[in-house]
Every structure is written in structure tokens, then in C-alpha cells.
Amino acid sequence: MTFARQVSRALDEEHRTTLALLGRVESACTRSAPDPALLAALMHQLETEVTRHFDFEEQALFPRLAEAGDADVVALLADEHAAIRMVADELAPLARAAAAGELDAGAHAQLRRTVTELVERQVAHIQKETMALLPMLDDLLDDDTDRELAFAYSAA
Fold it and tell me: Is the torsion defined by CA of 51, 6, 156, 68 positive or negative?
């Protein structure tokens, strides 16, 4: 899908990067010993990119969409953000322990379950944003607002 607005394109690019990383992590976690560097990349993505991405949507985009009459979509996406954050919080100590080689078999099983849940939630969320949020933004934002938001997002 090609998007007209800079904001939509930036978010879409981040979605694609996240999906690629999630695929690699999910595949690695089905094995007995996930690569510590891959887990470190996942933690970086969760701690910086997801936080930055979600905060931007919630603060800069969701209010505009709600004001334009799309409050139901905003509420759904915000609820999904909260659920993804909760899974990420659960995953963080497991991923750190795995990266340090400190997981026993039970903790590895928990890591695998938590990664699977995170992947399922994020993939479904990204699909919703790609099919609903990003096209809405293309229709809602004018050139000046798009430029201002894209600049603010790139500076965040």
C-alpha cells in the first residue's frame, strides 16, 4: 500500500521494520537458545521505537482522529497499545535474562509464550493501523499539518 502523507509513510516504514524483527524473533524463540543480539534488538525496539511510535500516535494523531469523528477507532487502537505495553513489560526481564544466558527451561517456555503473544498482538495491531489508521491520516491531514507532524516525529 502506498500512502500520500509523510506521517503515514513514516509509520508504515516503522511497521514494516517491526514486522521483520518480530518474524526473526518469533522464529528464534522456537529454538532452544535465541540469539542474545536478536533479543537485544527486540528490547531496543520495545523500549524506544514502540514507546516513541505509540506516544506520537496517542498525543499527536489520536486526538485529531477523535475530533474528526473516529473516536471508536482511536479507543480500539489505544486499548491495543495498552495491551502491547503490558506484554512488553512482562517480556523485558525474560529477554534480558535470555540475552545473559540465565534462563532455565521453565523460563524459556515462558519467554516463548510471551514472545508469541507479543507477536500476535503487534501483528494484528499493525494490520489494523495499515488498513484503517494510515488511510484515515492520508484523508485527514493537510499538507502543512502533515509536514509539521512529520518534522516533529522525526525530531522525537
Answer: negative
